[in-house]
Amino acid sequence: MHKEAIFGVDIGTTGCRAVLYRVDGTILASQSIDYPLYTPESDWAEQDPDEIYAAFVTVVRKAMAQSGLAAKDIAGLSFSSALHSLIPVDAAGNPLYRMLTWADNRAQSYKEKVASGDDGKAIYSRTACPPHPMYPLYKILWFRYERPDIFKNTAKFIGIKEYIIHRLSGKYIIDKSIASGSGLYNNQTLSWDEQLLELTGLRLDQLSEVVPTTHIERHMNPQTAQELGLATSTPLIMGAGDGMMNCIGSGAINPGQLTLTIGTSGAVRVITTKPYNDPKGRTWCYNLSEDYWVLGGAITNGGIALRWAKEKFASTEQKVAERLGLDTYDILSRYAEQKPAGSDGLIMLPFFAGERAPYWNANARGVLFGLNLNHGKRHLVRATMEGICYRMYSILQALEEVSGQVTEIRVSGSFTRSRLWVQILADVFGRVITVPGEPEGAAYGAAVLGLYALGLLHDIKEVGNFINIKERYYPIVENHERYQQLFKIYERIYWNLQQEFEEIAKIQRSWKN
Hints:
The chain is an alpha+beta fold.
């Protein structure tokens, strides 16, 4: 039976987006809603699962109304979601605690205990998840020892996509992509790791059933279907993590193609045909489909670092922007453009919330190095942009060591709104940077994977036929040479401050308590 469109739904870190696409990739409707992040203590980052579910229902319902389509016209609902979330729920599926997001570092001490033991490297070799408190593995340990009553009463530990799918279908299922990003999934046996179940004190039935990312559920709760404006028979396609969906959404699915995203956080990824482990433990590897895996590394401090600069140093600019109907970030980008590559020797290590790839150090803290009396606000803004690009460059180096030379770099995320920032990236990398024309990223990737699962695409690679290249940025040789000098100093600063990072992090935590 002919169907008109498919939903790609991205349940992101800061908001939920639902986009209706025709089979050829044309957008029929798009809706999005943001939701809050709660940070009641240092290193804590929580969200309310019910607020996220309500946002999901609203964007799907509004997109249906916007499109003018009937329920019978919808081929399916395919999902992308943020990784590493954790929600303890009771036997009825009710949350017993707010959801811990990927940005939550409260389990750092448990990560340190596990990583320092004899099994630390063995765990990475089985899971391809570097030791870091973002992973549900360590968050579950925190619940076990810090919230024993909640741990005792938890029927299931699930993520946000599982929570929504359960409310839609009544089933607890998790796709291989999200499972392989939990720190609990064995990439060799393709199942939950028995030794890690023992370590966390979990029973197997406290985790969801693992299914392929192309798995389809064909029956929806009637009341929920009515809320969404969909038929109960509308197929629900599991989909994958948002990072994997961004790879598909940008069309970078062939060997040598790399996707780079900078939004709130940031990530660098390549698609491979088998799982890879880095002997140095710098990268992760998550499942995409039966035929593909995604190798990569993510940074915590992407756009949030520039947001820090805006909130702390650009109050006047924000007021001016409001009066003139401008975007404050556009003003900051113009400021940065007025200073030379390298910010006259000012180097920013933008580790405001610890850092992930490639060195996985939740104790890392922000550093401004090279300050002199000539430096000002404009230098600070540019140095922040440059510092984020240095971090992405360090992940690129690790990926090429593990999986081989990258031949094309495609970028997405809010940073692409700044031509200067994309040019800085090209100059730091010394590579051509390609900007695809598809703006929806993960939502589009979810839709494409959904079409593939439903048999409406014969191969995921067909997405390349629908992606237009909007622009290419070429590196400026003299800028690249300057950045190469500064990047070496940037790396040395990081490594020379290991003891100081650990000590200041402990002091900050003790003073907060």
